[in-house]
Amino acid sequence: MALARPASTHPPERHRGHRSAWLRAAVLGADDGIVSTASLMLGIAAAHGTRATILTAGLAGLAAGAMAMAAGEYVSVSSPRDSERADLVRERTELATAPAEELDELTHLYVLRGLEPTLARQVAEQLSVHDALAAHARDELGLTEEQTARPLQAAAASAASFSVGAILPVVALLASPRPIQSLLIAVVAVLGLGVLGWAGALAGGARWIRPATRVVLGGGLAMAVTMVVGLLTHTAGG
């Protein structure tokens, strides 16, 4: 009769480092959406643009920014993806033409990581029988399924996160009375940036005060500079 294994009393560990890639992309996209769109709208407002002009600027900024983020992310992620594919093709060829040398190479990698040579050889042989290419991709090239570059996914995520951020100042304009439209746009943008910094820190398991403050200060500075440009433009234009 087999004995049941005692339940572990050690709580499961919850590491969040694996979230760094998508978290960075989401925070960057939403932050850019809020800051660039709000800054553009505030700059037009500071230049005494009409409400329709400010709205048009916001919607145009949203559309242009989302497309730019998608295109930029697609291009930036496609380059490492092409390199990954080339490395995998090269590795597949080497496994087909020189399997013994590739097995030695894998064994050596495990020895360098602390395994005894005999055990390292056994591990390398067993992993090679199971899936040699996957073993070399993971342990020699540092490629895993979770870390594989996905250009289309990255482009869609960047465009979506930018749009979510950019819609906030647009909604603020639509919901605000004309006399306080600039103030409400700025307040909503700052609050959105604060929430974004807090959410990013929470998802990453970090303290929220410093990230939230950093995001708010950076975005606030960008909006202030753009408003000054708008005022100077209005003044210079008479």
Q: Assess the beta-strand content as a share of residues.
A: under 5%
Helix content: over 70%
Q: What's the alpha carbon Rg, rounded to whole Å?
A: 26 Å
Structural class, judged by helices and strands? Answer: mainly alpha
Note the main sheet: none
E-strand count: 0
Shape: elongated
User: Helical stretch count?
Assistant: 7
Uncertain segments of ≥5 residues (pLDDT<50)? 1-8, 10-20
Distance between the termini: 93 Å
Series of secondary-structure elements, N-terminal to C-terminal: HHHHHHH
- Domain tally: 1
Instruction: Calculate the mean pLDDT score and round it.
Output: 82
Explain what you see.
This protein has helices at 20-46, 51-97, 99-112, 117-139, 151-175, 181-204, 209-236. With 238 residues, the protein is mostly helical. 79% of the residues lie in helices and 0% in strands. Residues 1-8 and 10-20 have low confidence and may be disordered.
Task: Give the secondary structure arrangement, pairings included.
Layout: H1 20-46, H2 51-97, H3 99-112, H4 117-139, H5 151-175, H6 181-204, H7 209-236
